[in-house]
Specification:
Among the domains are: 46 residues, no CATH class; 270 residues, no CATH class. It starts with 10 loop residues before the first helix and ends with a strand. α8 packs parallel to α9 and α12 runs antiparallel to α13. A hairpin with a 7-residue loop joins β19 and β20. It is elongated and about 135 Å long. The longest helix has 21 residues. The N terminus is likely disordered. It is built from 16 helices and 26 strands. The protein is α+β, with helices and mostly antiparallel strands. The strands form 3 sheets. The chain has an 8-stranded mixed beta barrel. It has a 3-stranded antiparallel beta sheet with strand order 1-2-3. The protein has a two-stranded parallel sheet with strand order 18-24.
Length: 770
């Protein structure tokens, strides 16, 4: 009988046969799960390689699933437990953690570090270690040889400063950041090395956003919202360069050091203190927004993070030999390499007002913060410059200032005792400026200053006396005054039908001080001093003016205008001819028929101003005090009547007070012109001077647009000026406010003026053109 060879069964058939046998056996024994004995018998009877392959495949799939989805999370959980057991000053959470030895990569997700002061949250990231061979002979730089460069790439980051106890949180948002840390030789060989962090950030936005879960009610609303909150600064791209010297040891005095010349270049390099600073370069799309509201939030954040301890500052001791050298100051520099905008925002009657400034590339800001304290305290400084300045306001008459460059320098002097007098010195230099001035800007800037002032009641426990010393210098300037009759002004942007007078000159220096040395003074006094050289007065008549063409023809035919600058001997242009240069003009070009009317070699203007400040929280008390002083000068009968008014706080009875009886604000003006001034008398010039008198110092100090019936909404609707002249439409508004129970005008704002003006003219040469 021929023996049959065993047939080879496919793996699929074997698996099916195995399942059938198991099912049959389970039916016979009435058990679903086979026993170990049955499995061992079956594997012995049949070829077991395929079964083991099947089991290994299942286990491998399970292991791969574990490594993919659960291993990193379990490692993160283990690391979280270990780190929190070892570190007790905060909480550390690691959502997942994995690493690869071959690629040198460490990956992590959902990392939280939280303590009492700071919290750091990373959604996901990875670390890559790369080997770079470096050679160094410095034994102290072992770690720098091991890790010479650290690169950090951040996608969508945010830095937040604040918590629920603050009304606003300062947030710095950016889309992408590419940072590199390394070291380089120090600025002085006495130090060890210099830390450097270079980076590039894209779509940077610095914002003030409402703090989540803030408990108190917020009544102080920002003047403008953009997205989540108020944008302080934004830029499409920002480059940063942070540097800091690692201080070395102060060397001991040796004979070799004593022999070196104290003025040698090597000695100067050795004496350089360790450097510490941050350079910021802003590119395209840079915008800055600030104002009284933003400054109040800054003050709130500053007091929270740097609370005053009200202790006397200790004098910083000089570093002694064998001790680490001292860092003297922190330097912050910000450069703008593209056109940028600056908006100064404030609110009046729930309406946002703004001063909009366009600046050109090349503008910069430098801040120096001292890190040491001397016997006289310390003095931080701020300086910078703005190029190609073009400033406008939100008033209907928008034009404000044009300048080629505006430079500023601010010095603040702080005493060691916190409530000792402070002094702030500010110098501003403006080059080739054109300033458009109307009297309504006085109310505009007054509203800005009033909102910037604190609304809280004066507190003697936090009062610090200080003095502002300001000096403003104009080099080649034009100040243009609107001289239309009854102060009607064409506010359109093109082809304005306005009569203008322009005061132009080579230099103008303005010096004045603002003392705030007394707590809640009843009256304040300050003096302004203005000195100008090579001044000219120029007149412009629009095309619609009936005397324009006759006056222009008279100017062109006048013999005085036919004299060339090289042959003129008048004192007004004598200094100009000596240098061989023509006077600078921007708007007041003779080609567009600006007419020279008056030239003065030098002008000195002194203003002595005494005013009674108004404190919003104590206005009624001030009014009572003023009435009490009036009572002392009045008779007994009038005194009793004043007492009845004194104890009546209602608005209807408050209006019974006559503001003209209050002590007046005083203004004393002295104007002196140097001899040999030249004036050419034109008919329209005299009329323009009379209009200037009424538009700036008389009844017509509130302007009216040609296309509007009422005045600009940004101005105060109380009065046209502190002299009490009503503005257009004010009476109707006051009636509406009285009917709706609105807030009425406080009598202290209607205080009278006591004005005295002295004008000294010497040897004025007048001409009548024919």
């Amino acid at each position: 009988m021929q023996k049959r060879e065993p047939c080879l069964l496919s793996p699929r058939y074997k698996l099916k046969l195995l399942l059938n046998i198991i099912m049959d056996h389970s039916r016979e024994n009435e058990s679903i799960v086979p026993s170990l004995t049955d499995l061992e018998g079956f594997l012995t009877e049949h070829n077991s390689n395929v079964v083991w392959l099947f089991v290994a495949t299942i286990l491998s799939c399970g292991w791969i699933i574990y490594l993919t989805y659960y291993n990193s999370r379990n490692l993160g959980l283990i690391l979280t437990l270990v780190l929190n057991r070892l570190y007790k000053n905060g909480y550390v959470h690691i959502g997942s953690f994995s690493f690869s030895v071959l690629s040198g990569k460490v990956m992590f997700r959902e990392i939280y570090y939280i303590n009492e002061d700071v919290s750091i949250r990373i959604q996901d990231g990875f670390l890559i270690f790369r080997c770079i061979k470096t050679e160094t002979q410095d034994p102290s730089s072992s770690w720098r040889s091991l890790i010479p460069v650290i690169k950090v790439d951040i996608s969508t980051g945010r830095l937040a400063f604040g918590n629920r106890f603050l009304p606003q949180t300062l947030c710095i948002n950016f889309d992408d950041a590419f940072l590199t840390y390394t070291t380089k030789p120090p600025s002085s060989h006495l130090d060890q090395f210099m830390h450097i962090v270079k980076g590039k950030l894209e779509n940077v936005r610095v914002m003030l956003v409402p703090s989540p879960r803030h408990v108190s009610l917020q009544n102080d609303e920002p003047p403008r919202l953009m997205g989540e909150g108020f944008v302080v600064m934004q830029s499409n791209d920002v480059d940063i360069y942070y540097y800091m010297d690692e201080p070395g040891i102060v060397p001991e005095e040796t004979d070799e050091n004593a022999e070196e010349s104290p003025g040698s270049e090597s000695t100067k390099l050795q004496d350089l203190p360790p450097c510490w600073g941050l350079d910021i370069v802003c590119g395209k799309g840079t915008d800055f927004n600030y104002g009284p509201w933003a400054d109040r939030q800054r003050e709130c954040l500053w007091k929270f993070f740097f609370p005053a301890d009200y202790q006397t500052l200790k004098v910083t001791e000089l570093a002694k030999p064998r001790k680490p050298r001292q860092i003297l100051a922190f330097e912050l520099r910000m450069n703008i390499i593209a056109d940028a905008t600056i908006d100064l925002l404030f609110t009046k009657n729930r309406e946002t007002n703004a001063i909009h400034v366009n600046v050109g590339a090349g503008s910069y800001l430098e801040v120096n913060v001292p890190m040491t304290v001397s016997e006289n305290g310390f003095s931080p400084t701020i300086k910078g410059q703005l190029l190609h300045v073009d400033a406008t306001s939100s008033m209907l008459y928008r034009t404000l200032l044009e300048a080629e460059m505006l430079a500023f320098h601010l010095n603040a002097f702080y005493q060691r005792i916190w409530n000792m007098p402070q002094e702030w010195q500010c110098e501003i230099e403006v080059y080739k400026a054109t300033y458009h001035f109307i009297f309504a800007q006085k109310n505009f800037f007054t509203d800005l200053i009033q909102e910037w002032a604190s609304d809280s009641a004066p507190d003697i426990y936090s009062f610090v006396p200080y003095t502002w010393k300001l000096k403003v210098m104009f080099h080649q300037f034009e100040m243009i005054w609107a001289a239309n009759q009854h102060n009607w002004i064409d506010c359109s942007t093109k082809q304005q039908e306005n009569v203008y007078l322009a005061a132009c000159g080579e230099t103008l220096n303005i010096d004045f001080s603002l003392p705030f040395n007394d707590f809640v003074p009843g009256a304040c006094n300050t003096k302004f001093c203005l000195k100008a050289e090579n001044m000219d007065l120029r007149l412009f008549l629009p095309d619609c003016h009936p005397s324009r063409y006759a006056t222009v023809t008279l100017v062109n035919d006048s013999q005085s205008n036919k004299v060339t600058p090289q042959t003129s001997s008048s004192n007004e242009t004598q200094s100009t001819h000596k240098t061989g240069k023509l006077k600078w003009r921007n708007v007041t070009q003779p080609e567009i028929d600006w007419i020279d009317c008056w030239s003065v070699p030098n002008i000195l203007l002194c203003i002595d101003y005494t005013w009674h400040p108004i404190y919003p929280q104590k206005a009624d008390e001030q009014l009572k005090q003023s009435l009490f002083e009036m009572q002392q000068l009045a008779s007994r009968s009038s005194q009793k009547a004043a007492e009845r008014t004194l104890h009546s706080p209602s608005v209807s009875q408050r209006l019974r007070i006559d503001p003209s009886e209050l002590a007046p604000d005083k203004l004393h003006v002295e104007l002196e012109m140097s001899p040999d001034s030249q004036i050419i008398l034109y008919g329209p010039l005299l009329k323009a001077l009379l209009s200037i008198k009424e538009n700036y110092f008389g009844e017509d100090d509130m302007y009216t647009d040609f296309e509007e019936v009422v005045t600009s909404p940004v101005l105060s609707l109380s009065t046209s000026s502190s002299s009490g002249w009503p503005a257009v439409g004010v009476e109707e508004n006051e009636k509406k406010e009285a009917e709706s129970g609105g807030k009425q005008v406080h009598p202290l704002t209607l205080r009278p003026w006591d004005i005295s003006v002295f004008i000294n003219l010497y040897k004025v040469h007048g001409k009548l053109p024919v």
